[in-house]
Specification:
Length: 382
């Protein structure tokens, strides 16, 4: 398994673990320092040249797909165009998700040794995908600081049964799950940015575009303005393109791939932190290491590579978020013997896992009769 390869998923019965077997929730017998010692030191080294090579590679692919679509698709017969455009949308959406992941890496200072380079690249790449870079960088940093905490985690925070909306029980059926998944994958990301949907509760309205919202402190507010300016500039550029080329052209070349990017972003995050085997903790039980380990690596097949392995090295990412993605596979292989049962990989195809988690992970509650009242598990019965 090389640093840029795909993680192999156990296939034989002797190798394969029940993916629904619960993660150990007791304090682990190792420390973060023990885990770090198992990783080759070069895995923590960031290469500006190598990081930029992934930017160039992804943008070259995106430009190639765009060129082919805009140069040749109109020459095809109508019935072939009906096939060609969905193929373009899928390929372009996947490649641009990889661009999104690189910008995410910039937000973690994992792109280079220079913070100003990371923030400049991240701001440009994320703004081009209509993401407020600094706004999300700071809220995402708090997610990493509080993963698995029911009170302080920032995203996909599950609710106890007493806080579930009254209509949720009527959505607990195949039609309801389809409706919920469609809305989540298409509108979930903009709703989270604008209205903090699925985020942690605040004492007042929280919005990623508001510099004076409760998400940010005084030192961060100026950069929130800068994020807003980046999104506004990108939106204005898209407006000018629409005026010159037409709205339909913009939707076909940019809009639909962006919807796919947003859908994959939500799906990847959802499946990394939502699983019947993962615990969540209240303040009486939570600590940083157990929270970081309450994370699930997933196998997306060939898309692991396209998404720069953010999918199948997420446990490592939560333990060492400044590690560049091109070393994460090697690091994951190194730490698995140390983590033992605390390492979790579910090789279920993501489309099956998405449906299973929507069915099985409705709310969280402590197990009845357990002394660990601060450890919460997903439940599926109303």
């Amino acid at each position: 398994m090389g640093a840029g390869g795909r993680m192999s998923v156990p296939t034989t019965k002797s190798e394969q673990k029940n993916p629904l077997q619960r993660v150990p929730h007791s304090k682990p017998p190792f420390t973060l320092g023990d885990v770090k010692k198992a990783i080759p030191p070069h895995c923590f080294q960031r290469s500006l040249f190598r990081s930029f090579s992934y930017v160039v590679y992804d943008l070259s692919l995106a430009s190639l797909f765009y060129y082919i679509a805009t140069t040749y698709f109109h020459l095809l017969p109508q019935h072939f165009r009906c096939i060609a455009w969905p193929v373009y949308w899928t390929l372009q959406g996947c490649v641009l998700t990889g661009v999104w992941v690189i910008a995410h890496e910039c937000g973690h200072h994992a792109f280079s040794d220079y913070q100003w380079v990371d923030d400049t690249v991240g701001l440009i790449l994320h703004s081009s995908l209509l993401v407020p870079y600094f706004s999300w960088k700071y809220s995402h940093r708090r997610h990493h600081s509080n993963t698995g905490s029911l009170e302080r985690d920032e995203v996909f925070v599950p609710k106890p049964k007493s806080q579930i909306a009254w209509y949720s029980q009527y959505l607990n059926n195949p039609i309801g799950r389809i409706l919920t998944l469609v809305i989540t994958l298409t509108l979930g990301w903009p709703l989270y940015l604008a209205f903090n949907v699925s985020g942690r509760p605040y004492d007042r309205f929280a919005c990623h575009y508001n510099p004076y919202g409760p998400i940010y402190n005084d030192r961060e507010r100026l950069q929130i303005y800068l994020s807003d300016a980046g999104v506004i500039a990108a939106t204005y550029l898209l407006y000018r393109v629409a005026m010159a080329k037409g709205l339909a052209w913009l939707i076909c070349t940019y809009g639909v791939p962006l919807l796919i990017v947003n859908g994959f972003l939500v799906l990847i995050t959802y499946l990394q932190h939502t699983h019947p085997a993962l615990p969540h903790y209240d303040s009486s039980e939570w600590d940083w290491l157990r929270g970081a380990l309450a994370t699930m690596d997933r196998d997306y097949g060939v898309l692991n590579k396209v998404f720069h392995n953010i999918t199948d090295t997420h446990v490592t990412h939560h333990l060492f978020s400044t590690m560049p993605h091109y070393h994460a596979m090697e690091a994951t292989k190194a730490i698995k013997p140390i983590l033992g049962e605390y390492y979790q990989l579910d090789g279920t195809p993501f489309y099956k896992a998405m449906w299973r988690e929507a069915r099985e992970c409705l709310y969280v509650e402590p197990d009845e009769g357990t002394p660990n009242k601060g450890v919460f598990w997903y439940k599926n019965k109303f």
